[in-house]
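As agreed, record copied across for absentees:
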Amino acid sequence: MEAQQAVETIQREMTVFARRARASAGRLHPELSLVSYTLLGHLEESGGCRATDLAAHYALDKSTVSRQVTALERAGLVERRLDPEDHRVQVLHLTGAGRRILARVTSSRRKAVRERLADWSEEDLERFARYLTRYNAWPGSGAGED
């Protein structure tokens, strides 16, 4: 396979992957889009952050993050707290319900990935993991790019 054809195949398959991920996120929790799931995951990993930090981290428009955060607040999954060091700043945190839903969806997603990769060798899994990590670590891309 020549390089150009390989790049086209990679792009096409990544698009299929992204569509499948979006669809499965919606099936697991109707109010939890892939973007919402990603934002909840980041809030859990970071221990909370500002909406502007989420927008910057994922290279998303602030209005997109604002709409997502508002929906997550209405669903009782996220709450705003004043920053103890700067009371002008509101920090987003997961609620107990947010943690439970994130854990359930994460578990379901991991199970689905394990099922898809069940017949892959350990070597193939390790190689795939390294390639995905390398691809996503490219410093020239924003997190929101396809």
Summary: The two ends are 23 Å apart (CA to CA). DSSP finds six helices and two strands in the chain.
